[in-house]
Amino acid sequence: MVLGDSAGAQIVPCVTGGMVGGMMMAIGGNFKDMPFTGTVKSTFEQKLADGNAIHSVTHSREARDSAGRTVTEMAEGCMRGADGQMHQRFNVNVFDPVARTSMNWQVGDDNQPKVVHVFHQPDLPAQATKPRELSAAEQEQRRKMMDAAREQQKDYRTEDLGTKDFNGVSAHGARTTRTIPAGQEGNDQPLVVINENWRSKELGLTVMTINDDPRHGRTVSEYEELNRGEPDPSVFAAPEGYTVEEQRPQMNGIAGMVGSVVPY
């Protein structure tokens, strides 16, 4: 498995319509000793008023090792390559909680420079500072925001879908239905938006999501393949032929020096 290889990731011809896909895994938190590699299939469908329809399918890949390092691909539309064909463009992100670094680069776009950006997180403060007390005006603003959020929740209904097996992994599902009243967004009739989420507590993964919105279409993302076990360490490394640019954290309000730029 070699993430960031656009030729390997692209399974079907790239089309410009539809939603981007990828990113099923939560970033951050304690996910040590939960290694896996997986392929996410995202399917988009939208029916138009004239009877026409838009369809698209993207495949992206994700992995996590026992140390908690993660790598994800995010589909970001199509670009015409040097061969004249449309190719899927991906943004690849690597997060290393041990080294406290994150990296990202793009593949599938011949018009973009082949650069890996490496960001170093600043050191944590030795002692957390006491939170600042809110002023009376800030407290009132927060109260209004909470009241507005509670009012909006009246438009939502949540259902427990129980548990279901996905590629040998048990996941718990929930469905949230939001009803947008007539006239709220210029709509003549109420709009019903459905979001379904299936999450595996065992692996700390969302294994399937469904977003069905009459304004934007229906998107289904799910792990088409899910293999437990240690991924190849090379998937967390910058690809060959790319230049590495390191960005150090800020120091005393002044940006740190950017590390030497060298081809990887």
Name the features.
264 residues, mainly beta, 13-stranded mixed beta sheet, 2 helices, 8% helix
Describe this structure in words.
This protein has 264 residues and is mainly beta. It is built from two helices and 13 strands. Strands 7-8-9-10-11-1-2-3-4-5-6-12-13 form a 13-stranded mixed beta sheet. Strand 5 and strand 6 (115-120) form a beta hairpin. The two termini are 19 Å apart. Residues 1-12 and 252-264 have low confidence and may be disordered.
Radius of gyration: 22 Å
* Class derived from helix and strand content: mainly beta
* Count of beta strands: 13
Low-confidence blocks of residues: 1-12, 252-264
- Largest beta-sheet characterization: 13 strands, mixed
Beta strand %: over 45%
Concise account of the structure shown:
This protein has 264 residues and is mainly β.
Write the layout of secondary structure elements.
Elements: H1 6-9, E1 36-47, E2 53-64, E3 70-80, E4 86-96, E5 101-107, E6 115-120, H2 136-152, E7 156-166, E8 169-180, E9 191-200, E10 205-213, E11 217-228, E12 243-247, E13 262-263
Parallel strand pairs: 6-12
Antiparallel strand pairs: 1-2, 1-11, 2-3, 3-4, 4-5, 5-6, 7-8, 8-9, 9-10, 10-11, 12-13
